[in-house]
Structures are given as structure tokens and as C-alpha cells.
Design goal:
The complex is a heterodimer of chains A (143) and B (267). Chain A is mainly β and 143 residues long. Chain A has 1 helix and 8 strands. In chain A, strand 4 and strand 5 form a beta hairpin. About 4% of the residues of chain B have low confidence. Classes of the chains: A mainly beta (143), B alpha+beta (267).
Chain lengths: 143, 267
């Protein structure tokens, strides 16, 4: 049987697999309990124009007793969130974030979703997002 | 005829059971003190005993309870001045029978909950070390340190949020006043009603006294602008003295999942 990969390629492949395995271990770790404000924490998930064309998204949220603050990063840049609200009736979350597209034009994202599995540390938020040009579903889980 | 009635009446009175005189409960022994005059919050030297858990209720005003749950959920505004999200979360925990309670997974009974947790607690005074320990017999068999050496709370980067927070104490006459900050957000701070919400902004002030030998009096003031609209004070409650050693109890002993209140297993 002909060997298709060189030994150097094998080493690189093994190294890559090791890194991926380590990353998976980190990712699958249990979320630290958060029994205070249900939005507080780091949230990771996907969003995109569709379920099959989704990008990873990171959202960090905080609560100071009066205002929900935080950051949205859909893989491009950190964008401070604004006008964030949580309606306890239905646990509906809504916030906005301003970014820029590749041409440097202002893009405003409007995100709205609902908290699911409220009592669990790894609760999730599902909903929709939209900007001036795009929109789609998203789902994030608390880490 | 009159004679007959008299006989009947006399017989009736004789047949009536003797009314039991209430047995007078002996008065509790007075509050014990150390030689320096401070109140002793534990057993007498050479003695034994601990504070058993009582039906203490963390509520601003009296409310009707059904165990750990509000008998009438519309009483929620009598419990505390909740922010809207905190009230909704508290009611969710009540309505779901506390199925997600971290305490059922052996997390520490921190905050006021330490004084209502089954199996009770001991208060150990260490004047030579200028600290008081509160040993929780129940839950995770954990302890809390109250520093009485006059130190202040850590601030800024030095704050390490923990279950019990950072506690300093001082005496106001016969009352031990404990001031605590630096709590994490991984626990529910009350067991009755179960599920009271707090944030890491919680500033807890507890007043503990021993009005007589058999009674510990506990009162908590909650100042948490992250979850409540104003500081509030829970009604004081009593905790009874149990004249036996506290039992060894480890929540984690063979605890793989944690039982729910309905007897099912939480996964």
C-alpha cells in the first residue's frame, strides 16, 4: 500500500488532532453555576443566515444592578452591546450592537431571543438577529 | 326529685376526667457568658450541644408558608423588594419545586441559609485568634470564619468571591454583628422560602444573640442593589439549642445526582 502522506505531514496531522482534542475537552467542560442574574456570563454558539450556514458567535453579558452590558463578537470584532433589556415575562432578551462591514460602513445588529432551561448553568438563548443587510437564527449556550 | 338531680349532678362531676394542669416548662437557663463578659454562643466549657435548624423564615413580613414554598405566590411582594427579574426568577424556583437548587447538589448553605439548614450548626469562639467559626453540620460540612480582629473587607482585585463571602464581626452589647461581602453567585441564599436570589453585590449584615441558654436569635439585613430595589431586613427568628453533639453528615457521601423534592433524581 502506497503511503500518501509524508512523515512530516503525519506529525503535523497528529499535532493538529491533539490540539483539536484538547480544545474539545475545554469546550465540553461543565458551565460554572450562575444563580444570580440569568444573563451574566459568557455565551458561545452559532448564528448565520441559516442553520446550515452558521458562524460561531461569542457574547459576553454582565449585570451591574441597573444595566445589562457586554460584548458581541460574531467572528469579526468585539462590539459593545447597547439598549439591552431582559423581560422576565417569557425571559425575552433584546440588545443591539454596532459594527462595521468590510467597506467600513456602519452595521447595526439587532438581536432578540429567549432564555431556555432557565434553571441550568448551561442555559441557552435562541432567537433571531438582523442587520441592514442580513438576518438569521442564532443559538448560544452559557459556558 | 331534687335529691335525684343532685345525685346525678354529683355523679357527673365525679365522672368527669380531671382537667390536666399544664406542666410548667422550667425556665431556660440564663444566657451564658465568658469570663470577659462576652456572650458564649456555644456549649459551656466541658459541655456539649449545638444549634439545631429551626423553621426560620427569610421574609420582610410574615407570610403563610407550605414548607419551603409560599402558600400563596401572590404574597411574593411581602417577602422582599425584588427587582422584576429577581422576583420572576424566585417565583420560577418556587413553581418548579426548587428542582434546580444547587443545595441539593451539595453546594454550600451560604448566607442566611446557613442558619436554617438541617443538622444545624456550631459556633466556636476563638478569642485568642480573634475569630469565630460557624461550623455547618449539614450540607457540605463546611465552615465559615468571622474575623473579630478589626480587619476590614478586601477591596478591588483582592476580592475573591466565595460561598460564605468575607465576614468581619464585632459585639454590640449582647449581640454579635457580622458584616459580610464578597459572595459568589453559585448558591441560593435561603431555604425557607427556598430560592431567594442574590448577586455578587450582596452586603449581608447578621445580628446574632442568645436571649437565653436554649435560644439563638438571628436577624439578617440584605443590601443587594443587584437584585433588590432597596435594603431590607428579614424577620428575626429563633433557633433552638440541642444538648447533644452535632452529627457527622457529609452531603457528598454517595451523592451522585441529588434528589429532587418530588423524590425523582436530578440529572
Amino acid at each position: 500500500m502506497t503511503r500518501l502522506l509524508s512523515p512530516a505531514t503525519d506529525v503535523r496531522k497528529q499535532r493538529l488532532l491533539s490540539i483539536l482534542a484538547f480544545a474539545c475537552l475545554l469546550y465540553s467542560g461543565p458551565a460554572v453555576a450562575q444563580e444570580g442574574h440569568p444573563l451574566k456570563g459568557s455565551w458561545v454558539g452559532t448564528w448565520g443566515p441559516s442553520q446550515s450556514h452558521a458562524n460561531e458567535v461569542l457574547i459576553v453579558l454582565n449585570w451591574n444592578g441597573k444595566i445589562i452590558s457586554g460584548m458581541l463578537n460574531p467572528g469579526t470584532d468585539n462590539m459593545p452591546i447597547k439598549n439591552a433589556t431582559l423581560n422576565p415575562v417569557g425571559w425575552v432578551v433584546r440588545f443591539e450592537a454596532d459594527g462595521k462591514d468590510r467597506a467600513g460602513n456602519l452595521v447595526t445588529y439587532v438581536v432578540e431571543g429567549k432564555i431556555e432551561n432557565l434553571g441550568l448553568p448551561n442555559r441557552s438563548i435562541t432567537g433571531t438577529w438582523k442587520s441592514q443587510k442580513e438576518n438569521g437564527p442564532f443559538k448560544i449556550s452559557r459556558q | 326529685m331534687r335529691f335525684l338531680l343532685t345525685i346525678v349532678a354529683l355523679a357527673g362531676s365525679l365522672a368527669a376526667p380531671a382537667v390536666a394542669q399544664p406542666t410548667a416548662k422550667p425556665p431556660a437557663a440564663p444566657t451564658p457568658h465568658w469570663p470577659d463578659g462576652r456572650v458564649n454562643l456555644g456549649p459551656l466549657p466541658g459541655g456539649k450541644g449545638h444549634w439545631n435548624s429551626g423553621p426560620g423564615l427569610l421574609s420582610e413580613t410574615p407570610i403563610k408558608m407550605n414548607g419551603a414554598f409560599l402558600a400563596d405566590p401572590s404574597d411574593v411582594d411581602k417577602v422582599a423588594p425584588f427587582q422584576p427579574w429577581a422576583k420572576a426568577l424566585f417565583l420560577y424556583r418556587q413553581q418548579t419545586q426548587a428542582k434546580d437548587d444547587p443545595h441539593s447538589r451539595c453546594q454550600g448553605p451560604a448566607g442566611p441559609r446557613q442558619f436554617t439548614t438541617p443538622y444545624g450548626l456550631e459556633i466556636v469562639d476563638q478569642p485568642e485568634l480573634k475569630r469565630i467559626l460557624i461550623l455547618s453540620a449539614g450540607a457540605g460540612h463546611s465552615w465559615r470564619t468571622i474575623y473579630t480582629d478589626g480587619r476590614s473587607h478586601p477591596t478591588g482585585e483582592d476580592v475573591n468571591p466565595t460561598y460564605y463571602g468575607h465576614s468581619v464581626g464585632h459585639w454590640e452589647n449582647e449581640t454579635l454583628v457580622i458584616d459580610s461581602v464578597g459572595f459568589n453567585e453559585r448558591f441560593w441564599m435561603s431555604g425557607r422560602p427556598v430560592g431567594m436570589v442574590h448577586t455578587d453585590q450582596l452586603h449581608l449584615i447578621e445580628r446574632i444573640s442568645r436571649p437565653d441558654f436554649n435560644t439563638l436569635r438571628y436577624e439578617a439585613t440584605i443590601d443587594d442593589p443587584g437584585a433588590y430595589t432597596r435594603p431590607w431586613k428579614g424577620q428575626a427568628f429563633n433557633i433552638p439549642w440541642s444538648p447533644v453533639e452535632s452529627e457527622e453528615f457529609f452531603c457528598t457521601d454517595n451523592n451522585r445526582y441529588g434528589l429532587q423534592h418530588d423524590g425523582s433524581i436530578a440529572k
